[in-house]
């Protein structure tokens, strides 16, 4: 490399930036330049120049990372140098709480929040922008009292919770992660919730007016931008997002919506999402061009040899599987971590299995924590499970059907350098933070659908991490991926702000009349009339908002017309569940049959339709799974599939994880929760008592939503702990722990005290 020539080009780019303010091009030049010289010892004059340019661009982190890369102490810059003094002053302007240094673009957003005026912003920025980190600084600056942060997944919820735990600034807040947490509005409160938990909280408490709301991954309100097309429950979450967003807007002062690479048409104003922005007085902060970690692409085609990281790597002109193996083996000496993107869960495991069979390097594992984790996985789930085999070769698997605590541990071990490679679906784009330098693309699909431009941007965005890398590397093994990446995307839409768009009955409930057709208006009015005729008050029909009011009427009519023997079955089932944690099969079959007409998920419908013989009566195939889960939890259900159904571990794991974290957690809980509400309302009227005095499905709902009953158990379930630890703390049982579980128990001790000092 000719460092003089490269430096001259950088200076030209800098002067061009000063003349034309092309941020995108300047960041590209700067990060690529730093990446080229990261292994070159620079002199003090060049260091001063680079520090000055970094500061004037507004990203001092580039220079900080350059210092970090060097093995010696930080460069001793001559403080008499005027450029160095100017750089120091500029860096001070970006320094906020506790000496934290923002980049210029984060600081611009932070400066827009002022105490003298309420603000609503929509921030669109690349994955490397540091949106969550920025939110922490907004909270510190504004000193908000009641705050809610809404994240798409429990994993992200707990990740941000851990970060806040380490920051003393947040010690003044009572932090809540559960929808039924008690709170005192005279204190400072910070809720960290998913959209579903936010809706549940707002259903069950007196209305809280929030000083600040942060809503992450806002694109999920548009079903066209769903991430995992294999999981049908995901397709329903757009409704939760839209309703939660509406309520957040109605009950908040300041609000920040955020998402990566949002495509919004502000020019014409005809787009539905643009109408949402205008109607709700949002200012758009477009930082899509601020790509702080540039991407270097290597497209693998028919050539046999490719230069990757200045190494000649022979990919060969063979199958995609073999090319992948050749590339991974050729890059083995680079000490760089890689994520391999695959279209489906099955492909993740196919590629991982092929890698296990053909890769010819094995680095010994010496880390005792990692070894204890492998022993734990082997003991609990068996050596036949693909993940057990993969971990022994420092390979991770990450998709939606891997238990949550295992997913979390795989990411931690990957970031710590113990795992070298992760095979993953689009779950890796769900805000999971990794230190991967490389993304290897094996497909241009997600599930069975073609990737969108938006998906491609998000996948590529996981290559390289700001403050860890100057650039990320994208190695493409699919012929169509780059054309998708370079294409344009459809605009973000909001169905509640488009009169012509077909709406679900639930969306009609939450859409203003100006965006409804005449038929929708008539239907909405008629449904409200029918609710009134039945004497169902708003405090009842406005709960469980993701189920339409029409479906609530259907379910209400079925329950109120129950015969005495049907009511007795339900009552007996509730008693057995609450008192003995035991499933009443006849009662539960009646419950499923009653709910069936309002269930919209085809997979749940199928599990109710399909029957099995258990004893003398046929029951839905769902019931044996529910029974094993109630009796012995996740592991009991897994062992039931292995021992009673003679399933292989890979198949059993996929079924159990999909059922527990999909069918039970999102679908059954929602429908049984509504049944419980309407049943208790009807009985309370008949018996002239408070609805709270009527026994309901509390035990069942808690068990299936959280896998736990106590507040502490729910917190640990969210955090992600092995099932034996969950049993120990939630059920207060004496459990024999293995070596890994003992180590985890030590780690979670402080977390337990921090999250719930009054719940232990």
| Major sheet attributes | 7 strands, parallel
Our measurement of the CA-to-CA distance between the termini, rounded to an integer number of angstroms, reads 60 Å
Q: Uncertain runs with pLDDT below 50, 5 residues or more?
A: none
SSE-based structural type = alpha/beta
Radius of gyration, in Å, reads 28 Å
Q: Share of helix among residues?
A: 40-55%
The average pLDDT value, as a whole number, equals 89
Overall body shape: globular
Strand line-up across the major sheet? 3-4-2-5-6-1-7
Tell how many strands the DSSP assignment holds. Answer: 19
Question: Strand portion, in percent?
Answer: 5-15%
Number of helices: 31
Structural write-up:
By secondary structure, the protein is of the alpha/beta class. Helices cover 50% and strands 11% of the residues. It has 31 helices and 19 strands. The strands form five sheets. A seven-stranded parallel sheet has the order 3-4-2-5-6-1-7, sandwiched between helices. The longest helix is centred in the C-terminal third of the chain and has 39 residues. The radius of gyration is 28 Å and the shape is globular.
């Amino acid at each position: 490399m000719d460092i003089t020539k490269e430096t001259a080009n950088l200076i030209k780019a800098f002067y061009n930036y000063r003349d034309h303010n092309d941020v995108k091009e300047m960041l590209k030049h700067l990060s690529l330049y730093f990446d080229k010289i990261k292994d070159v010892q620079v002199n003090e004059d060049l260091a001063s120049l680079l520090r000055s340019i970094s500061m004037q661009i507004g990203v001092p982190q580039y220079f900080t990372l350059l210092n970090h890369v060097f093995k010696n102490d930080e460069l001793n810059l001559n403080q008499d140098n005027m450029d160095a003094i100017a750089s120091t002053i500029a860096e001070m302007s970006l320094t906020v709480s506790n000496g934290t240094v923002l980049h210029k673009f984060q600081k611009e957003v932070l400066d827009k929040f002022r105490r003298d005026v309420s603000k609503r912003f929509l921030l669109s920025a690349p994955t490397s922008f540091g949106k969550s980190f920025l939110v922490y600084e907004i909270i510190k600056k504004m000193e908000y009292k009641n705050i809610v942060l809404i994240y798409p997944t429990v994993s992200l919820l707990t990740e941000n919770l851990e970060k806040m735990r380490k920051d003393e600034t947040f010690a003044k807040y009572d932090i809540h992660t559960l929808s039924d947490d008690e709170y005192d509005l005279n204190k400072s409160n910070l809720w960290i919730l998913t959209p579903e938990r936010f809706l549940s909280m707002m259903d069950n408490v007196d209305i809280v007016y929030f000083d600040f709301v942060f809503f992450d991954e806002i694109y999920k309100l548009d079903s066209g931008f769903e991430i995992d097309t294999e999981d049908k429950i995901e397709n329903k979450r757009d409704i939760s997002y839209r309703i939660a967003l509406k309520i957040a807007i109605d009950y908040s002062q300041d609000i920040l919506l955020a998402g990566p690479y949002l495509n919004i048409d502000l020019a014409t104003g005809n787009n539905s999402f643009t109408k949402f922005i205008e109607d709700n007085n949002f200012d758009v902060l477009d930082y899509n061009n601020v790509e702080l970690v540039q991407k270097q692409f290597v497209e693998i085609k028919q050539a046999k040899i490719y230069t990757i990281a200045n190494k000649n790597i022979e990919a060969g002109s063979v199958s995609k599987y073999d090319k992948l193996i050749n590339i991974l083996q050729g890059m083995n000496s680079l000490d760089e971590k890689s994520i391999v993107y695959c279209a489906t869960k099955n492909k993740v495991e196919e590629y991982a299995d092929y890698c296990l069979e053909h890769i010819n390097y094995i680095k010994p594992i010496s880390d005792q924590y990692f070894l204890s984790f492998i022993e734990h996985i082997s003991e609990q789930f068996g050596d036949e499970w693909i993940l057990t085999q993969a971990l022994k070769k420092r390979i991770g698997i990450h998709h939606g059907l891997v238990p949550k605590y295992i997913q979390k541990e795989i990411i931690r071990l990957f970031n710590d350098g113990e795992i070298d490679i992760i095979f993953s679906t689009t779950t890796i784009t769900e805000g999971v933070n990794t230190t991967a330098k490389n993304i290897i693309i094996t497909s241009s699909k997600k599930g069975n659908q073609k990737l969108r431009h938006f998906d491609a941007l998000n996948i590529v965005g996981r290559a390289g991490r700001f403050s860890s890398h100057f650039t990320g590397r994208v190695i493409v093994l699919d012929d169509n991926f780059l054309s998708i990446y370079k294409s344009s995307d459809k605009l973000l839409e909001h169905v509640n702000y488009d009169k012509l768009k077909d709406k679900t009955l639930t969306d009609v409930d939450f859409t203003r009349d100006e965006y409804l057709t005449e038929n929708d208006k008539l239907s909405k009015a008629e449904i409200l009339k029918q609710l009134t005729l039945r004497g169902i008050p708003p405090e009842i029909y406005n709960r469980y908002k993701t189920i339409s009011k029409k479906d609530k009427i259907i379910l209400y009519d079925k329950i109120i017309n129950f015969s005495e023997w049907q009511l007795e079955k339900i009552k007996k089932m509730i008693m057995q569940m609450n008192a003995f944690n035991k499933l009443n099969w006849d009662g539960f079959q009646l419950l499923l049959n009653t709910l069936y007409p309002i269930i919209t998920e085809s997979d749940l419908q199928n599990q109710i339709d399909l029957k099995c013989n258990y004893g003398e009566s046929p029951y839905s195939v769902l019931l044996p799974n529910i029974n094993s889960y109630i009796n012995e939890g996740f592991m009991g259900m897994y062992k039931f599939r292995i021992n009673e159904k003679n399933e292989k571990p890979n198949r059993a794991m996929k079924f159990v994880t999909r059922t527990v974290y999909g069918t039970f957690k999102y679908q059954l809980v929602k429908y049984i929760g509504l049944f419980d509400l309407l049943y208790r309302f009807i009985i309370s009227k008949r018996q002239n008592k408070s609805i709270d005095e009527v026994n309901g499905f509390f035990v069942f709902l808690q068990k299936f939503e959280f896998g736990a009953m106590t507040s502490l158990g729910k917190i640990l379930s969210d955090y992600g702990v092995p099932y034996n630890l969950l049993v120990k703390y939630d059920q207060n049982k004496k459990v024999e722990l293995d070596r890994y579980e003992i180590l985890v128990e030590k780690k979670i001790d402080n977390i337990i005290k921090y999250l719930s000092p009054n719940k232990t």
